[in-house]
């Protein structure tokens, strides 16, 4: 045995993986899948028959959950696909800043100030109008693969 000290530098972050494997043949409509490195919600799945040379194939049509772009992928049904861990969390809206960020109240009583206003015009209008009228609002934040975005809004009454 040697008396040398070893230093290990870890470049990976601690915590859970951003995705988990799932067999392509078991992924259904309204499920989630990673296509071209983006977390997507599946809107259509079609499976082709086994061909002369092997595997049945799954054709996925999916919409990116953050930017709304349509993506497609074809994967052999016996192969694994990456499926993102998608979480939804509710926060109470405290403030909307001039630079387009929102201030949200967390469960623990702290604030979360790193989220931008939603890009969806209808949701953005609802959020701004409700805030200007002084309503208490709860926003739903969807997070997957290190990204977060406001995806829904609830009015819980006047302040």
TrEMBL record:
TM region(s), chain numbering: none
What Gene3D superfamilies has UniProt attached to this entry?
A: 2.30.30.30, Nucleic acid-binding proteins (2.40.50.140)
* Keywords per UniProt: Hypusine, Initiation factor, Protein biosynthesis
Report the residue ranges that make up the Translation initiation factor 5A C-terminal domain in this protein: 85-154
Q: Which Pfam families match?
A: eIF-5a, IF5A-like_N
For this chain's UniProt record, which GO biological process terms are given? positive regulation of translational elongation; positive regulation of translational termination
Q: Give the start-end ranges of region Disordered.
A: 1-21
Q: Which PROSITE patterns match?
A: IF5A_HYPUSINE
| Alphabetical list of CDD domains matching this protein | S1_eIF5A
Query: From start to end residue, where is composition biased (Basic and acidic residues)?
Result: 1-12
Q: Which SMART domains match?
A: eIF-5a
Consult the record and explain the modifications the protein receives after translation: eIF-5A seems to be the only eukaryotic protein to have a hypusine residue which is a post-translational modification of a lysine by the addition of a butylamino group.
By sequence similarity, the record places it as follows: Belongs to the eIF-5A family.
**PANTHER family per record:** TRANSLATION INITIATION FACTOR 5A FAMILY MEMBER (PTHR11673)
Its biological function?
A: Translation factor that promotes translation elongation and termination, particularly upon ribosome stalling at specific amino acid sequence contexts. Binds between the exit (E) and peptidyl (P) site of the ribosome and promotes rescue of stalled ribosome: specifically required for efficient translation of polyproline-containing peptides as well as other motifs that stall the ribosome. Acts as ribosome quality control (RQC) cofactor by joining the RQC complex to facilitate peptidyl transfer during CAT tailing step.
Query: What protein name does the entry list?
Result: Eukaryotic translation initiation factor 5A
Source species of the chain: Carex littledalei
